[in-house]
Amino acid sequence: MFSVIMLVVMVCGLIGTAIYKAFGRATDTRVMIIYATIAVCFGSFLNVVLVKRWNLEIGISDYALIFFTDVLVGISQVVLFSIPLMALFAKITPKRIEGTTYALLTSVLNLSFSILSPNMGTAINHRFVGVSADDLSSYDTLVLITLFGSLLSLVLVFLIPTNAQVREFRDIRELEYAEIKQKRRDRRREKARARGLLNEDEEELLE
Question: Is 84 within 8 Å of 24 (Cβ atoms)?
Fold first, then answer.
């Protein structure tokens, strides 16, 4: 069953990539992250429904709810979160350090999803809830904590720059690069003039 779920998640990733390429590239990154957070919150709510067994009361089987939740979260994570975030970093990364920035981004993401999040969840469970393999009576409390944690992330979404702010930042950066290049040319011209290596025709060419 787990392998089937993972296969569904991989397929959803491919579908999400195609959807982003067709419709998402012109959408503001902040808006897409907000939609992704809402989708994750809705997925967390569906997990609460599953744990509380409310789905059986309305005639929805556990397998159908699990697959729907995985499809929803899988596609939304790719379309609304992962690719827009990568695209945003690509837009704001300074020239000549793209590899370093990408390595930093992947390292931070791996640190977050592989180390910080699991350890934080384990610490919360161990200190406040106490769910174990032998006692799952408080598992619904953990799911509710996940839901409220997803809602809290909406507060931080407005720290993400809009497309207009990114364009303004890139324009300012291009002007700074142009000024730096001009200063370098001026310094080289001054050094060449001081050494007597620059005549009037060569100086006009440099300008």
Answer: yes
Q: Give me the residue spans of the domains in the chain.
A: 2-92+130-160, 162-207
Residue-by-residue DSSP string for the chain: -HHHHHHHHHHHHHHHHHHIIIIITTS-HHHHHHHHHHHHHHHHHHHHHHHHTHHHHTT--HHHHHHHHHHHHHHHHIIIIIHHHHHHHHHHPPTT-HHHHHHHHHHHHHIIIIIIHHHHHHHHIIIII---SS--TTHHHHHHHHHHHHHHGGGGGGGSPPHHHHHHHHHHHHHHHHHHHHHHHHHHHHHHHHTT---HHHHHHH-
Judge whether residue 203 has pLDDT over 60: no
What pLDDT does 141 receive? 84
What's CA 89's distance to the chain center, in Å?
A: 9
**Which residues make Cβ contacts (< 8 Å) with residue 165, sequence separation at least 6?**
none
pLDDT at 61 over 80: yes
Residues found in the chain: 207
Distance CA 7, CA 12 (A): 9
